[in-house]
Write a structure and sequence with these properties.
Layout: H1 8-11, H2 22-29, E1 35-36, H3 48-57, H4 70-80, E2 87-90, H5 93-104, E3 110-115, H6 120-127, E4 131-136, H7 144-149, E5 155-161, H8 173-182, E6 188-192, E7 217-222, E8 235-238, H9 241-250, H10 258-269, H11 271-295, E9 299-300, E10 306-310, H12 315-324, E11 327-328, E12 330-331, E13 340-344, H13 348-362
Parallel strand pairs: 1-11, 3-4, 3-5, 5-6, 6-7
Antiparallel strand pairs: 2-8, 7-8, 9-10, 10-13, 12-13
Helix pairs in contact: 3-10, 4-10, 5-6, 11-13
The structure holds pyridoxal-5'-phosphate (PLP).
Pyridoxal-5'-phosphate is lined by residues 40, 92-94, 118, 161, 165, 192, 194, 222, 224-225, 230, 235.
Length: 366
Amino acid sequence: MFEALVPIHIATLAAYPPGKPLEELERELGITDSIKLASNENPLGPSPLALRAIAGQLNRLHRYPDANAYYLKQRLSRHLQVAPAQLICGNGSDEILELIMRAFVQPGQEVISAAPSFLMYGLLTQGAGGIFRPVPLKNFAVDLGAILQAVTDRAKVIIINNPNNPTGTAVSRSDWEDFLEALPPQVIVVVDEAYIEFAETPTVPQGLEYLREDRPLIGLRTFSKAYGLAGLRIGYGYGPSTLIGYLDRLRSPFNVNSLAQAAAVAALDDDDFLARTRQVVKEGLAYICGALDQLGVPYIPTQTNFLLIQVGRDSREVYEQMLRQGVIIRAMGSYQLPEYIRVNAGLPEENQRFIATFKRVMGYGD
Ligand SMILES: *Cc1c(COP(=O)(O)O)cnc(C)c1O
C-alpha cells in the first residue's frame, strides 16, 4: 500500500545493518555475560570527565541546548587550531554527512566513494536522490587514482574514509596530495576521519592539514569511537566557513543535545582517557593479531581500533555460531566481503574470549 506516494529512491532504500546490541542478544539467549566487539566502540566505556560533565548538566535539562554549541566550538577551535566558523557539530558525524548530501547533491548528481567502505555513504546518497558510484578498493585500500578516473561532470561529492572502515587501511600522503591536486573544482571532498585518532603511522595525512578557505574539503570526526560517547550521538565537521555556513543553515537548530555538548567539551580535556584508549586498543590488536598469526588466519593490517579477518568460509555461519556463545562480531556479507569478519579490540579478557570462541567455532581446538 502507498507505493504510489513514495519516490522510487526512497521506496528502494535498504536499511542500515547495525551491530547487534548486547541487550538484544542477552534477551534472545537468556544469558547475561555476552560481549560485543561489533561496532568499534570504546572498550573502556565513556571518558570519566565526560560523565562528570553530564552529571553537572542534568538539572538544566528543562532548557533547550545552545543552538550554536558555543563552548564546544570554542574548545574544538583550540584543539584543532581552526576558526569556530569553520566548525559544525552534529548528532553524530552521520548527521553532518546527511547535511552534506542535502546541501550539495541534487537529484541525479553523483557521489563517489570506495567500496567496500562505510555503508551509510550509499544509503545517504540515495536518500538525497543522488546516484552512488562505488569504486573498488585496490588491495583493501582506497584507490584514489581510480576514484579520480570515476569523476565525470555529474560528480558532486567524493567521500574518502581515512582510515577506511571496514578494511582499516589509510591512504598515503603522496597519493592524497596528488589526488587533491588533480581534483576538478566543482567536486567537494569529504574525508571521514572516524578512526583517525587510532592511526599509528605518523605520516597518515589528516584532512585538517589541508583545510583552506578556498578548497572545497570537509573533514568529519566523531566522539563515538576514541572518546567513548557513541550513545550520546556527537560528531563534528571542519571546512571552509562558506561551505560550513550552508550546512549550518540547513541543520535543525537544536541538533546536538546539551548533555552531548558538555560531555564532548570535557572529553577533549581528558588526555589521560584518550591515551589509555589508544594503549588498550594497541595492546588488544597486538594480542588478537598474534593469536591469528599462530593459527595462520589472514587479516588486514589496521590503522584503526578494529581488524578485518579472512575466515575463508561463509562469515554468516561464523557470526551465528559465535553469537550463540555470547560473542557479537560483525559478518561482512553486507560489505561484499562474505568470507570476512570484522572485530574491534576489546578489554584483554574480551579479546581472550573472542580468540577462544573463534578457535572453537573454526575448529582449531585448544
Ligand atoms: C563509526 C563511524 C562513524 C561515526 O558515526 P557517528 O554518527 O559519529 O557515531 C562515521 N564514519 C565511519 C566510517 C564510522 O565507522
